[in-house]
Write a structure and sequence with these properties.
This protein is an alpha/beta fold and 272 residues long. Helices cover 41% and strands 22% of the residues.
């Protein structure tokens, strides 16, 4: 199952369209979810009953618009809608306990109604129990870009990126950022361990139809990946979750990319 969190914004509808295509590619059902305060969901009487009813009606309109977009784009997928009566971050994390992917939208500069990059998207990308895609601009140049840092954790990023490239019939570009001369030591500048090389070799064998390009670029990883992903279908990075990150993981690099990535950004959860 894929979960898409919608908030009534145009960005949310674009994310819903992206999620619908992904559900079709994976042949899995799609859950369209809208979060609202629990009091608004539950209040039927009292002085706030009218406000609560107005909010519920607004929520139903948000879900209806997202469902119409989804069914219009991908009429064959299984779709259902739901309210999430809680804080959006908490509600979406709980809703994805059994999901394989969570999708949220972004206006790109921190401002979407209900789905702020600095709060909701950042919160779920760091704590969801599944992989998360934050949809900014939707572009298509027939390429998936994956940021890898030479750590064993990159194996999970590679698995996700190869699978996506195969589903979409696109090329996969693997990008390593190296510190320029004079920079402080960079955690992404480590040599690849044998396990990562073995993982890459195994994935090439399992996905023989995926064209792969590898490159090393000198510079700050945020700028390197931002430029590499310009026009790409998807940029893939990794996250250990629960606020502990390293290298190409959610922290300075992935946090910055939530705001700056020029294409949809997949934050892949890496369990310890």
């Amino acid at each position: 199952m894929i979960v898409i969190g919608v908030d009534g914004s145009r960005a949310g509808l674009e994310a819903a369209g992206w999620a619908a295509r992904e559900a079709a590619l994976r042949d899995v059902p799609l859950l369209v979810a809208h979060a609202m305060p629990r009091w608004a969901y539950e209040t039927e009487t009292g002085r706030l009953a009218e406000v609560a009813a107005w909010m519920r009606e607004g929520g139903r309109s948000v879900l209806a618009a997202a469902e119409e977009r989804v069914r219009g784009d991908q009429p064959k997928i299984s779709v259902r809608t739901t309210f999430l009566p809680d804080d959006p971050r908490t509600a979406l994390i709980e809703a994805t306990r059994d999901a394989e992917l969570l999708v949220v939208g972004s206006h790109g500069l921190g401002g979407v109604r209900g789905m702020l990059v600095g709060s909701v998207a950042y919160g779920v990308a760091g704590h969801a129990s599944c992989d998360v895609v934050v949809v900014r601009q939707v572009t298509s140049t027939g390429e998936i870009v994956a940021g890898i840092d030479g750590s064993e954790a990159s194996s999970r990023v590679l698995e996700f990126a190869f699978a996506e490239a195969e589903l979409r019939g696109t090329r996969l570009r693997l990008v390593r950022a190296r510190a320029q001369q004079g920079f402080a030591p960079d955690p992404v500048a480590r040599e690849e361990p044998g396990t990562l090389r073995e993982s890459l070799s195994g994935l090439r064998a399992r996905h023989p139809g995926v064209p792969v390009v590898e490159e090393t670029v000198h510079g700050h990883p945020v700028e390197v990946l931002r430029q590499a992903a310009t026009g790409a279908e998807l940029l893939v990075v990794g996250s250990h979750g629960y606020g502990t990150f390293a290298g190409m993981l959610l922290g300075s690099v992935s946090h910055a990319l939530l705001h700056q990535a020029p294409c949809p950004l997949a934050v892949v959860r890496i369990t310890r």
